[in-house]
């Protein structure tokens, strides 16, 4: 499935369609995609359906705004929550990560894991913090409160199975990546996305 | 609506007596976390004494505290565990608790409208430790559905 998913992205227009949908916080309609990418509606629909078939996008019927006569519900698309990893030859680092996380919990070595994460974060730090977070796959955005939130958790599956450890490790790493330049990095989990948020220090909440 | 609820037991061995300075941070956070749980979607019940606390219950060992709760579903429990401010004390648990050398959290299904007893919970934890996750006693990492009937009713 994952190889199929990657193959679906080989076509340049389709990849542009995927990247547009994936970057949007809200589900998008075919018309929005057609307009944004500069292609016809039929072609947009074709690529959106191919991406959905490959498991890269999820389609749903959005309740239409407006009263009677608003027409049938528009189909909307958003990035699928499914993860796709491909390594050739096969490697399974997630399985390994799960085993190691369980071992860390079993012996109570969380503080050592947090220290190792902070050291790794310091190596990753440099330049603009938000740009660096984007490179690391966190998909940062600033909310109305000048808080930087992270739309993606790069460790989602492991955060699910070992939340205290993985989110603590992620926090320690991101504290080091962001540094102390007027920011407070802390756990502030919402229903989706990463559990870490970066608050501006001169922003009282 | 499901005719089953999810019972949850987790236990933790204290690093120091509950009234010692080492545990002060943990104890100070308890009312807030209890309140958060009670306001979380899918929360049903938790074991507590007259003061709203449960740290005085020591059914296993004198230094082992218990947390016994009931939720509507695995997803509601999971959302509370790692999608709320509960995550912060979880991150810090090694400051307060020593690791246990066996499973410390167990889940099992109970008929909706009933409450689990400590004895029942102890039996489930023992079963999990003895035979690993099964439909009788399982974990958040390897959950089991309530029953075939429940699975059918969810899709209709």
UniProtKB/TrEMBL annotation, chain A:
**InterPro entries per the record?**
ArsR-like_HTH, WH-like_DNA-bd_sf, WH_DNA-bd_sf
Q: Pfam families this protein is in?
A: HTH_20
From the Swiss-Prot or TrEMBL record, give the protein name. Answer: Helix-turn-helix domain-containing protein
Lineage, uppermost ranks: Bacteria, Bacillati, Actinomycetota, Actinomycetes, Micromonosporales
TrEMBL record, chain B:
Q: Which residues form the DUF3291 domain?
A: 6-142
Q: List the Pfam families.
A: DUF3291
Alphabetized InterPro entries for the sequence: Dimeric_a/b-barrel, DUF3291
What is this protein called in UniProt? DUF3291 domain-containing protein
């Amino acid at each position: 499935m994952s190889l199929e998913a990657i193959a679906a992205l080989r076509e340049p227009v389709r990849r542009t369609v995927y990247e547009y949908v994936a970057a949007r916080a809200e589900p998008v309609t075919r018309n929005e995609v057609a307009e944004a990418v500069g292609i016809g509606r039929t072609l947009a629909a074709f690529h959106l359906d191919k991406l959905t078939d490959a498991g890269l996008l999820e389609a749903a019927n959005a309740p239409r705004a407006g009263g009677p006569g608003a027409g049938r519900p528009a189909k909307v698309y958003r990035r699928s929550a499914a993860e796709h990893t491909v390594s050739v030859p096969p490697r399974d680092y997630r399985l390994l990560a799960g085993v190691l996380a369980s071992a860390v919990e079993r012996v109570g070595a969380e503080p050592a894991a947090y220290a190792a994460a902070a050291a790794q974060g310091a190596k990753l730090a440099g330049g603009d913090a938000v740009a660096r977070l984007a490179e690391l796959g966190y998909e940062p955005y600033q909310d109305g409160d000048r808080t930087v939130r992270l739309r993606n958790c790069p460790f989602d599956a492991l955060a699910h199975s070992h939340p205290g450890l993985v989110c603590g490790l992620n926090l320690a790493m991101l504290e080091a990546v962001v540094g102390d330049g007027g920011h407070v990095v802390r756990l502030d989990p919402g229903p989706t996305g990463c559990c870490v948020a970066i608050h501006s220090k001169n922003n009282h909440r | 609506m499901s005719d089953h609820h999810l019972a949850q037991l987790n236990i933790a061995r204290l690093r120091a007596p509950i009234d010692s300075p080492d545990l002060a941070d943990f104890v100070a956070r308890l009312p807030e976390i209890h309140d958060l749980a009670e306001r979380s979607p899918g929360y049903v019940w938790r074991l507590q004494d007259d003061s709203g606390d449960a740290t005085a219950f020591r059914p296993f060992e004198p230094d082992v505290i218990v947390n016994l709760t009931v939720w509507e579903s695995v997803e509601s429990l999971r959302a509370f565990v790692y999608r709320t401010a509960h995550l912060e004390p979880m991150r810090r648990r090694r400051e307060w608790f020593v690791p246990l050398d066996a499973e410390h959290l167990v889940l099992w299904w109970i008929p909706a409208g009933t409450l689990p007893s400590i004895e029942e919970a102890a039996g489930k934890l023992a079963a999990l430790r003895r035979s690993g996750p099964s439909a009788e006693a399982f974990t958040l990492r390897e959950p089991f559905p309530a029953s075939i009937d429940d699975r059918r009713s969810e899709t209709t």
